[in-house]
Structure formats: structure tokens, C-alpha cells
Give the backbone structure.
Amino acid sequence: MSQRIGLHWFRHDLRLTDNEALLTLAKQCEQVFALYVFEPQWRTENQWGFCHLGKHRRAFIESALSDLKKQLFALNIQLVVLEGEPTHLINQVIQDNKVCTVSYELHAGINERNQITALKDACKQDELELKWIEGKSNYLYHESDLPFALENMPDTFSPFRRKVEKYAQVQAPSPVNIGAKESGRDIMVNQALNQYKFANDAADLDQQYLGGESAALARLDDYFFGNDGIATYKETRNGLDGWNFSSRFSAFLAHGCISPRFINHRLEEYEAQRVANDSTYWLFFELLWREFFHWQHIKHGAMFFASKGIQGKPPSTVFDAQTFEKWCAGETGHDIVDACMKQLNASGFMSNRGRQLVASCFVHELNLDWRYGAAYFEQQLVDFDVASNWGNWQYLAGVGSDPRGHRQFNLQKQTGTYDPQRRFIQAWQ
């Protein structure tokens, strides 16, 4: 009797713990393979003049894949990393290996959702009879958990938060670990398909911020139970530089090295064992913001990239190439903004407070088209997340989910509050 062969497509779920789709696939199939695909268009210029994948995030993903590959190897699951157009490439691998079941994790990105549709359509055209498994462990809630139909979802955060906190239950992480599979033949990869060549440029990445589930779980345990950083999160989260002023979970979440519901599970354990206070709640509050933007992106789709935003409200900003280049280089003349931009360019990281300040300056002081700022962040950030990045930029530009609209920060006052000794500014001059 032939074995049932399963294929998992890793995208923004680079983990084994609480990977709903992979766990289900492993239960149903005797042999399991896994793929990750680097897409050529990630390195080509988009309409705003930037590429999707910059060097810092590429290094993070490569380190995450290296960690994932080791963990999968121990389970007799082979991970193959390829480069090419994913629909054609994965369809070819499915056919070459007589795959019967394909699994993947739901992601809010419109491109990611369109790719799944295109792959299913291609397999139908080739008359491949496949079973599809869609996991939902990248989110706190399933769509069916939401106390409203998606089309009726509130477009501002506060009513969303109040309703889900009152009426919805956060999903528990998957309770069972993936067991080792039977050892079998390696996955067959057509020679015409390109194996991805790792750049191995992790030297460009903060060594504390290497990717991978192992690093994510270590960071979680250290921040919660090691140094109790979570107990003072609300007081320290507006810091600008360093490692422990914030959780630093964002890059791990963006690439799925850890799931939000696993973080929430461990947070509840911390509150039961140590302390439950405003700071521990505030981390959950931030996870809800992520959740909000992701469901908003599913609801509004391409409107997340439109100049008018989800409000359909044309901004009064314009685009000036020279001014924009100065902002990118950290040469605006606004010291706090310039320090943040230089930090971003050098490290791929910028604090939450810094992001608000540089975006406010971009829209108000410089009067620039917000989409160029969002696209630059997309290229530079280690923790780029399509829904959170573009949703937050719309918010600051006054065309998104902010009910007040077009809010502006006083940069001098913000400097006095968050960098009174100008130490951060001096460090990045």
C-alpha cells in the first residue's frame, strides 16, 4: 500500500510549536516534506522604488530557516528552500512527489491569499486531486470566533477591542507536539527548479536578533520568567534603543517563529505564577492591535496600499524626491527623526515610539506621500509585517483606522520626554 505523502508550505510560520497546519498534516500522512520559497520579485523594485526584502530581514529569515531545518531533520521531515515563482514551482513538486495533501497557515497578506488561490487553481487545471489543510495558528482568533461578520468589523481599534474582549475567546495553542515521521526517500526536486543560495550575511544582523523558533522561545522565557521584563513593560515600552526596554517579539511574530496565541498562553501562566498588572495586560493589548490590523487587511485587501487608504480620503501630501531621500538617510534636520532613521538603516530595527515620530514628521513636517514611507519600511525592517506596517502608516497619515485622523507629534516635546539627555541622538549621530 502506497504511503500518503504530505507537503507543508512554510511562509510566515517558521516554527514547530503551535503550527496547526503542519501538526494536522503530520497526523494524516506517513511522509511529510516541507518547502520554503524565496520569490524573485522580493528583490526587484516596486512602484515606490524599493524591494520587498532588504538585507536585514533576509538575514533574519535565513537564520530562522536554518533553525527550522535542524528541528525538522530530527523528525525525519526534509525542508527544501527554493527560489522561483511559487505557484509553478510548488505545483511541480507536488506532481513529482505524488503529494496527496498540502498544508499551509492562513496569512492576512493579499499576495499570500492570492497565491493560495492560484496554486489551488493550477492544481485543478492539472487534474490533481489534493486535500488542502489551512491552519489558523498565526492568529489569536479564528474568523468564526469574531463577534461580527468580517464585512461588519469595526474600522477603528477601540470598538474592535471591546467586542472581542467581551465576546470572543482566544484560541489555545495546539496541545500536541509533532512526532517523528517514518524515515523515507528525500523529496524529488526537478533540476530545472532553483535551489536557494543562502547569502549567510547574518553578520549584518544584531546577533541578539537572530531568527528562529529556538531564539523566539528563549527570548519569551527570558523576558517573562528570566528578568521579569514583562512586569514593567508599560513603563519601559517607549524606549528608543537597547534590548530589554520592549519584548522584541515583533520579528518573531512577523515570520511566525512564535505564534501570538502561544505568547498569550505563556503570558497567562506568568500572570498566574508571578503578577498580573497593567504591563502584562498591555502586551496582550499590543497583540490585539496586531490582530486588528490583520483582520482589517483581510477585510479591505488592496485598499491597504491605496493613497486614500481605507477611508477613501485623499491626503494633501505630495512627493518630493530630494526631501524623501533626506528622510531615508536621516538628514531631515530633526535630530530625533534622523537618529531613528540611522538606527533603522544600520540595524533593521526601530522602536515603536520612533516609528510614530518618523512617520509623523514624514507626513506633517515634510508633507510627503505616506506610501513611500511605508514602502521604505517594508524594505528595511527586520520585523516587517504587511498588515501592521501599512495599517500603521495609514493611521499616522490620517487615511486609516485613526478616528481622530492626521495626528501630529511635537518632535521637540517628544525628544524632551523620551530622550531628555539626548543620549539616543548622540549614539546615532
